[in-house]
Structure formats: C-alpha cells, structure tokens
Amino acid sequence: MALTNIGIFGRRNVGKSSLINLLTGQDTAIVSDTPGTTTDPVRKRMEIPGIGKCNLIDTAGIDDTGDLGEQRVAKTYQAAAQVDVALLLFTANLFSREEVQMLNALREAQVPTIAVHNQSDIVPLDPAVAMDIMHKYAVDVVEFSCARIDDTLRRDETDMLLAYIEKAVAQAAPFRERAMFDGIIPDKPKRGKQHRVLLVCPIDSEAPAGRLILPQTMAIRDILDRGAVATVLQPAALRKYLRENPVPDLVVTDSQVFGEVSGILPKKVPLTSFSVLLARSRSCYPNYLEGTPKISRLQDGDRVLILESCTHHSSCEDIGRVKLPALFRKFTGKQLEFDIVSGLDQITRPVEEYALIAQCGGCMITSKQLYNRLKPAITKGIPVTNYGMAIAYMKGVKLSADGIG
Ligand SMILES: Nc1nc2c(ncn2[C@@H]2O[C@H](COP(=O)(O)OP(=O)(O)OP(=O)(O)O)[C@@H](O)[C@H]2O)c(=O)[nH]1
Ligand SMILES: [Mg+2]
C-alpha cells in the first residue's frame, strides 16, 4: 500500500509538535512553550487504521522571523509542496495572513488540507470563524485540543480528526503511489498459488556497478511483499530458462530489450517493463495511456520535449538523449526537433510549442512532483508519454490499460 505523507503546519506554539506526539503516542518531537522549538521538519513513520502507512511530518512555525527563521519557513514551505495531506493548525480563532498564505501554497500543490483549531480547551472555536473559513477557502475546520483532561472527549476528538484525515487521504488519491504490482499480483498467495515472476534484467555497460537500478529493486521488494516468487536473469539466459522451467505467470524486463524478450517468450506469457510498472504506480499514468498513441501523429518540424528527471542516472540519460530521439525519428519517419530538460530545471520554451512530451520514469522524484511537472502540459491538452510506454509502443508491444503486453 502507498505511503501517505501527512504534514502538520501552523504558527509557532500552536501545538504542532504536541499533535504529532499525540497521534504517534510517543515523544516524537520536543514540545515547549518557547516559540520556535521545532526548527527542521521531524518525520515519524506510523500505521493509522483506515489510512495505512503514514509519514507524519512536524514542521517549524510559518511565522518565524529573522534570518534563520526565514530559512526555517522556507523549509516548511518546501515540505508543504511534498506532502499528500496537510493539517493547518491555528488557535484562538486567529486565521489571517500566515494561515492564508500557507493555505494558498498547499492549494497550489494540490494538497487536501484540514484547518485544525487547536488549544480549544483555552479558547473554543468560534462557529462564525469556522463558517467563514469553510466558505472562503473550502476547507474542513475541526475543533481540537491536545490537552483535554477528559479521556472520552480526547478520544472522540482524535477519532473525528482521523476521520477527516481519512477523507483527505482519499482526495489525495490521484497522486499517491501504488505498489508496483498492485492489481496485477494478489496481495497474498491465493489458494496456495504462488505467483511466479521472471525478471529479465540486462546488465550492460550502462548498468550501475555492483547493484540493480531502483525500479528493479522496487519490483523485487513488492514481489516479496506479496509472497510471490521472483526469478532474476539476463536476456541471454532466457531461452535456456524457458526450456527447463515452467512458464512464468508474468515477465518483466527493461524497455530497451522489450522487442528481443517478446520475440523469445511464448505468445501467451504476459510481458511488461520496469518503467511501465513504475509509470503505472504513479500519477499521470492515464495521461500517458492517452498520449502515447499520439506518437503516430507527429509531423515534420514538430518539437518533442524530453523530461529527464534524475540527473545522475546515466542509463536514463542515454535513453533520453540518444536512443529515444533516434527511435522517434525511425518510427515516425519525420524530421523532429528535440529539447531535453534535466532534473527539475525550468522548461524554458512555452509548453505550447511542443507536439509531445516524453517523461522518464521519474524514480527519483515523488509522484506529486511528477504531476506538478506535467500539469501545465496536461491542462493545455499536450500529449504526454513516458519513456517505457513510448518504447513499448514504437516496438509494437501493445499494452493493456494495466500496462501488460
Ligand atoms: N492548553 C493547551 N496547551 C497546548 C495544546 N497544544 C499544545 N499546547 C502547549 O502549547 C505549547 C506549544 O506546543 P508545541 O507543541 O511545542 O507547539 P509547536 O507548534 O510545535 O511550536 P514550535 O515548535 O515552536 O513551532 C506547549 O507548552 C504545549 O504544551 C492544547 O491543545 N491545549
Ligand atoms: Mg514544534
């Protein structure tokens, strides 16, 4: 199941650290009545019933001042752009410039947010203030206190807050990552049947020394989590393996050897690639499904943008800079122009100038960053595709909506 990042934001001393401690049931963060106690984001992993695995993130106050204070605020805003769900704490019915500014940043990053009126044991939430916030900013407003003495009241308020969080997590769903084999391999072996997955991993000059690449490691981990069996081999060992072993339930390979592997496999064996599985597990996959066939419509003079999100992954870089442009030209037979933008660098040309955008798997960035990266193009109706899906399409491997060929 996906990991949900839940951020806690608000001015200094509103009780952000007290709330993370209450939710985790531990002294996760230091609590004190000195404003500015929390300086860097503090993360705590926990399992919340109904929500699953979460990272709770406590942050520095959004009203911090001075040189260092401003740096802390900047860090808090950085964290805000990364979370899936936000709790924006305020007290004494004070919801003004700082809160609105943070709310706007969270909205910009499409983070479902709950306004939590904390310390309500000192000053209760004014219903008129709550209505005003709800109407103006379309967020839920919850009355809360980290210091209720009455156990039942505290439990009820906590349950209520968790219910609101659960609702916000559901709203954040489009950005949450699915596990790689979610919906493809059962969570657990069913009726004793272990799923057998064959991973065909080319180890060529582009492979990093001494290790597998991240999508391969992620695939193996998810197969293990599901109680399934992974067999890992190189393409050269595939024919002999298939002669001597039962047919696997699924084969996963590198997009670059899609053609070679599908030529060797018996027709009925489902085949996909690591990068397709990765794309499928994250945001924008439906956009890729829609955008990929548009490769066939490219015309002479069209400009294609290649988005290479990790700067240090030499194998991706080689695909983005060399192999993919060559494949596009060969497949379409058209004169195409290519621009390549690395990391999360600014896209200099107006996005409207592109006929198509090809995004790498983005294994080093979050699903939300990926979404925010592609959003301007998607909203303008520019087709987007993904390295692995584009390669599969151009090599004639037809993928189902689930990414299986
Ligand atoms: N009465 C009351 N006190 C609270 C409540 N929540 C927190 N406090 C107290 O408020 C003070 C500040 O709490 P913290 O949790 O440290 O606040 P914070 O938002 O993390 O503060 P910074 O880290 O400085 O930004 C502490 O003295 C807490 O004990 C509450 O709901 N009611
Ligand atoms: Mg704190």
CATH topology of the largest domain: Rossmann fold
Oligomer: single chain
Averaged pLDDT? 92
- The proportion of residues forming helix, as a percent range, comes to 25-40%
The CATH superfamily of the largest domain is identified as: P-loop containing nucleotide triphosphate hydrolases
**How many separate domains?**
3
SSE order? EHEEHEHEHEHEHEHEHEHHEHEEHEH
What is the molecular shape?
globular
Tell me the number of helical segments per DSSP (H or I, 4 or more residues long): 13
Bound molecules: guanosine-5'-triphosphate, magnesium ion
In terms of DSSP E residues, the strand content is 15-25%
The radius of gyration is: 24 Å
CATH class of the largest domain: Alpha Beta
Let me know the number of strands. Answer: 14
Instruction: Give the N-to-C terminal Cα separation.
Output: 24 Å
- Major sheet characteristics: 6 strands, mixed
Structural class by sheet pairing and helices: alpha/beta
CATH architecture of the largest domain: 3-Layer(aba) Sandwich
Largest beta sheet: strand ordering: 2-3-1-4-5-6
Describe this structure in words.
- The chain is α/β, with parallel strands linked by helices and 405 residues long.
- It folds into three domains: 4-175, Rossmann fold (3-Layer(aba) Sandwich), CATH 3.40.50.300; 196-277, 3-Layer(aba) Sandwich (Rossmann fold), CATH 3.40.50; 290-394, 3-Layer(aba) Sandwich (Rossmann fold).
- Helix content is 37%, strand content 18%.
- The strands form three sheets. Strands 2-3-1-4-5-6 form a six-stranded mixed sheet, with helices on both faces. The chain has a four-stranded parallel sheet with strand order 8-7-9-10, with helices on both faces. A four-stranded parallel sheet has the order 12-11-13-14, with helices on both faces.
- The radius of gyration is 24 Å and the shape is globular.
- The two termini are 24 Å apart.
- The mean pLDDT is 92.
- Residues 10, 12-18, 31-33, 35-38, 60-61, 118-119, 121-122, 145-147 line the site of guanosine-5'-triphosphate.
